[in-house]
Amino acid sequence: MMISSRLRKSRGFTLIELIISIVVVSIALGGVLLAINYTVTHSADPMLQHQALAIAESYLEEILLKPFADPDGIDTESTRALFDDVDDYNGLSDNGARDQTDTAINGLHNYTVDVTVASTALNGIGDTNSKKITVTVRHSTGINMSLSGYRTSY
Questions:
Q1: Does residue 97 lie within any of the structural domains?
Q2: How many domains does the chain have?
Q3: Residue 38, in any domain of the structure
Q4: pLDDT digits (tens, 9 = 90+) for 72-121
Q5: Structural domain containing residue 98
Q6: Contact 138, 115 (CB under 8 A)
Q7: Which residue positions does the secretion signal occupy (predicted)?
Q8: Contact by Cβ (8 Å): 69, 154
Q9: Cα distance between residue 91 and residue 99, in whole Å
Q10: Band of the pLDDT at 34, cuts 50, 70, 90?
């Protein structure tokens, strides 16, 4: 009789054990939900970074394909479609990515593109027949990417 009463007392969970297990499961579930929330909110970042890189590459390629020196001697072309040398792009600032004819590209209006062109010497050589072009692309979510290239007078 004594053995069966002990068995009855040792079965099941106490209220304290049940509350502790609920708290532990809640904490674990909260951590998992935080990880899922972080992943979902940042899942588009790689795509935005890739777009920013593609925009910077296209601007830089456009600029590097232009002549080093101004071919017509007029250094103040009024629109991007008329830019005919590397220096014309210095100070260019576009709100929203644009193509070579200065037409806005659909879906890329959240990007800002800034271009700087500076005369520089390569490898410490005193000759300044080179220009460093820096294209900086920013997105409204905080992405900031810079791409640089050099154009020489050859």
A1: yes
A2: 1
A3: no
A4: 777 777 788 888 888 889 999 999 899 888 888 998 989 999 999 998 87
A5: 45-152
A6: no
A7: none
A8: no
A9: 17
A10: very high
Q: What is the pTM of this model?
A: 0.69
Tell me which residue has tokens 């576009």. Answer: 94
Q: What is the pLDDT of residues 127-141, one digit of tens each?
A: 668 899 999 999 988
Residue 92: partners with Cβ closer than 8 Å, 6 or more residues away:
80, 113, 114, 115
Contact (Cβ atoms closer than 8 angstroms) between residue 115 and residue 59: yes
d(CA 87, CA 71): 11
Which residue type does 98 have? Answer: R
Type of residue numbered 47: M
d(C-alpha 140, C-alpha 51), whole Å: 13
Name the burial class of residue 97, with classes exposed (0-12), middle (13-18) and buried (19+) by CB atoms within 10 angstroms of its CB.
buried
